[in-house]
Specification:
Length: about 120
């Protein structure tokens, strides 16, 4: 505390040496000190930084888990889509095969069916 008073007095004398009145010098020093206190109040402490790092790590883990879950869901959806597509393609090829077989013989098959 003694050093602070001595520094304050030295600063007042320095300002007085360049034509500041004692009141002006004291007012300027007080304004500067207030500004410094406001600036220091906004600085993060080591604990603040540690807390933010921990929060970032937690969010990172959470995001990785969410991404893994989405990947798992999408993989399942893709597999199910592929199965449906395979089934539809198989059915489509079967129908196409039947049509290819029946097509040339359609008239004969129709006549046969009508005779029944």
């Amino acid at each position: 505390m003694c050093n602070a008073v001595r520094n304050y007095q030295e600063q007042v004398h320095q300002l007085e040496a360049v034509q500041f009145s004692p009141r002006q010098a004291e007012a300027l020093i007080l304004v500067i000190e207030e500004r410094q206190m406001q600036t220091l109040a906004n600085l993060a402490t080591s604990q603040d930084i540690t807390d933010v790092r921990r929060e970032i790590t937690d969010v990172n883990k959470s995001l990785k888990q969410e991404i893994a879950d989405v990947k798992k869901d999408l993989t399942h959806e893709i597999i199910m889509f592929e199965k449906k597509l395979n089934h539809r393609m198989t059915l489509g090829f079967f129908i196409l095969g039947v049509l290819c077989f029946v097509g040339p013989n359609a008239k004969g098959i129709l006549e046969y069916l009508l005779r029944l």
